[in-house]
Amino acid sequence: MPVAKPVFLALAILALLLGARAASAEPAKLRTGWVVPAADSPLLMFGKAGITKHEGVSYTLEATHFNGTPPMITALSAGETDLAPLAFSSFALAVENAKLDDLRIIADVFQDGIDDYYTNEYMVLKDGPVKTIEDLKGRVVTSNGGGSAVDMALREMLRKHHLDDKRDYTLVEAAFPNMRAMLAEKKVDLISGVRPFTDSPDLRAIARTLFTQKDAIGPSQMIILTARTGFLEKNRAAIVDYLEDSLRALQWYSDPAHHDEVVKIVSDFAKTPPAVWNGWLFTKEGDYYKDPAGRPNLTALQSNIETQRELGFLKADLDVKQYVDLSLVDEAAKRIK
């Protein structure tokens, strides 16, 4: 029996409505960058079951590896990534050089030199000729890249001791995994050390710490999570859900009762021996500080950026408070109290 036209039209309209509802219920895709596992990488990418409540429901996560934070600026500008964990140095350059005036700081990722938590180390050979910072005059030092946060702390410490780049020392760039070999082979006289590389027994056997990042520039808001305002406005609910899941994951990974399992998860992901992570990961004595509520240290961040300008990497002052929106992470934190 043929369906009457009014009934047919009603069914067609219902189908369209249901289709529209289904389309609107599709999870938002959140594209994020990362550099180092368990440092600036989303903990959710490790896939620990039972932690996330919203992943796959209100959002999906697409994580892309970068060699450093500066390339993320290009990806943000091109609309190729949505959430970017930027170093304080990269953030300022994104605003000033890339003209990303709509970039907003939405959460903490990790901080250096807070209380008794870890701070990056600048290391020399134990039996080498460098005993003091002044001994670096006429020698070769290395960082991971000009203008990076680690690089700026190195330059600032040497500047405090009246050593200027090009005039008094040579600075070369190298990837963190290659620095131990360069120091051992005496190709450089000082290396910049970050986790997990500074926990290597092979490095500790030949090197000692000459100074730390905290010695050089005080506490650092090393990495902040950023996004552009258009993306935040369009996907606010999904981003709050993501931040809630991230804070829950941080709680779980930071619990000492889970340490052995955490080490296995991260070492399996990074395809490295558990010994690389076991002695320090998510411990107060050995790891960077990660704010439990996801709030960045804006005082430290402002100070870090002022150092960046004094070193000549920025042309003008930058007031970080103009580029902050912590309402999303604050809403997320309230849900897990």
Structure description:
- It is built from 13 helices and 10 strands.
- It is α/β, with parallel strands linked by helices and 337 residues long.
- It has 2 domains: 26-112 and 220-335, Periplasmic binding protein-like II (D-Maltodextrin-Binding Protein, domain 2, 3-Layer(aba) Sandwich); 121-217, D-Maltodextrin-Binding Protein, domain 2, CATH 3.40.190.
- A 3-stranded antiparallel sheet has the order 3-10-4. A 3-stranded antiparallel sheet has the order 8-5-9.
- The longest helix has 20 residues, at 5-24.
- The protein is globular.
- The model has no long low-confidence stretch (mean pLDDT 91).
List keywords for this structure.
D-Maltodextrin-Binding Protein, domain 2; 337 residues; 2 domains; alpha/beta; three-stranded antiparallel beta sheet; globular
**Architecture (CATH level 2) name of the largest domain:** 3-Layer(aba) Sandwich
Kindly estimate the percentage of residues that lie in beta strands according to DSSP.
15-25%
Mean pLDDT: 91
What structural category do the secondary elements indicate?
alpha/beta
Succession of helices and strands: HEEHEHEEEHEHEHEHEHHHHHH
CATH homologous superfamily assignment of the largest domain = Periplasmic binding protein-like II
Quick synopsis:
The protein has two domains: 26-112 and 220-335, Periplasmic binding protein-like II (D-Maltodextrin-Binding Protein, domain 2), CATH 3.40.190; 121-217, Periplasmic binding protein-like II (D-Maltodextrin-Binding Protein, domain 2).
